[in-house]
Specification:
Blueprint: E1 24-26, E2 29-33, E3 41-45, E4 49-51, E5 57-60, E6 64-65, E7 73-76, E8 80-82, E9 89-97, E10 105-109, E11 112-114, E12 123-131, E13 137-141, E14 156-160, E15 165-167, E16 172-176, E17 180-187, E18 197-204, E19 208-213, E20 216-220, E21 226-235, E22 245-253
Parallel strand pairs: 16-22
Antiparallel strand pairs: 1-4, 2-3, 5-8, 6-7, 7-11, 9-10, 9-12, 12-13, 14-15, 14-17, 17-20, 18-21, 19-20, 21-22
Length: 257
């Protein structure tokens, strides 16, 4: 029990008002004392009054953040609410649909959602489920995000930064033997740079890859005359397309004197 403040009055009928902002049980406690040297005290209690707890009311819907691409992770705030009998618990669920406005069904209960390939083309909402100690529930939905899609690589481009030449598939590139050349690979799609996996290979011949940093790599052509086949490709776990590649040939020549 939590005691309120005393209200003092004489031996007349008194109306006492108590404003409540929560539920529970309430009773009135009256105490009478006389004015003798050894006061006589008499206590009286009203019957218990059961005060219902206010209904759960959502005051702010959950908010989803993150990129809507396969391989990314979405997170969500919990909805804000008032009411319910304590303790009141809330949890985040994720619901999905092939339609942006209806037909949503449960997918996962977790504060975050890793977007996997089975969600490609789907729409997603976070849903806060709120439950109080009496088992009363309320739900609140975020705005819909999606449709989920894959990142794309698109067209692969390769430039020899040392000569300025753009390399296309099946090109024959003539370079001076004994020199090193730096290449820069790019692509036209929206795949984040940190998710791109670049692969550079010497398929044949004696040229060597002397350094590689993501989309930048250096090829050293051996002295004298030579011929080497090379390839470069870019891929990612987060795409749904055949990784593009460029295969070309370098012929090493003796530099003019």
């Amino acid at each position: 029990w939590t005691n309120g403040s005393w209200t003092t009055y004489d031996n007349t009928v008194k109306t006492v008002t108590k404003n409540l902002n929560y539920g529970g049980q309430l009773r009135l406690h009256c105490q009478a004392k006389d004015s003798s040297e050894t006061p006589l005290t008499v206590n009286a209690f009203s019957t218990l009054i059961n005060v219902p707890f206010p209904d759960i009311v959502v005051t702010q819907n959950p908010v989803v953040s993150g990129k809507v691409f396969v391989g990314e992770t979405l997170s969500s705030t919990l909805a804000s609410f008032t009411g319910g009998k304590p303790p009141v618990n809330a949890k985040t669920m994720w619901v999905v649909s092939t339609n942006s406005s209806s037909g949503f069904s449960w997918y996962q209960t977790n504060p975050t959602l890793l977007i996997t390939s089975d969600l490609n083309g789907k729409y997603i909402r976070s849903q806060t489920e709120i439950e109080d100690a009496n088992g009363n529930k309320a739900w609140a939905n975020s705005t819909t995000v999606g449709p989920i899609s894959y990142y794309t690589i698109g067209t692969l481009n390769l430039v020899n930064n040392s000569t300025g030449q753009t390399i296309s598939n099946a090109d024959l590139e003539e370079l001076n033997g004994g020199n090193s050349y730096t290449y820069n690979g790019t692509y036209s799609g929206n795949l984040p740079v940190n998710q791109a996996v670049w692969d550079v290979k010497v398929r044949s011949g004696t040229a060597t890859i002397t350094s590689k940093n993501g989309n930048l790599f250096t090829v050293t052509v051996p002295s004298g005359t030579s011929i080497s086949g090379l390839s470069v490709s870019v891929s990612s776990y987060e795409i749904n397309e055949t990784p593009p590649s460029i295969v070309w040939t370098i012929t090493g020549v003796i530099p003019p004197t």
